[in-house]
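Study this chain:
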Amino acid sequence: MGHWKNDQMNGYGTLYLNENEYYEGEFVDNKRSGWGRMYYENGNMYEGEWFNNKRHGLGLFFIINGNHYEGNWFEDKKHGYGQYYFEKEKYLFKGLWLNDMCKSSEFTQLLNREHKTSASQKI
């Protein structure tokens, strides 16, 4: 559902993969590219930049258990500066990520403080 050009999704639209999993955002030549949100079947959600159907650029990944990662992505993996928050333990890791692995970080236990993420864009 959305904008089409030359029989391909181009511009803003929504792609339903099934009734519980869908993407809403920008497309280029049938691929998720630009800014968008992906709602996964398991309840997780990614909001941020995409390139060539992969999370790429700045983004925020929410996990259904309350944990979330906010930072840089490269070809669908956490890569560059980012922070990962563990909801149950109230731990926050800020640091550099390489190929989905945290390589150097600063660890903070937030105790009773609430962790806030950056404001999301409205679709």
The mean pLDDT is 88. DSSP finds no helices and ten strands in the chain. Residues 11-80 form one domain. The first strand starts at residue 2 and ends at 5.
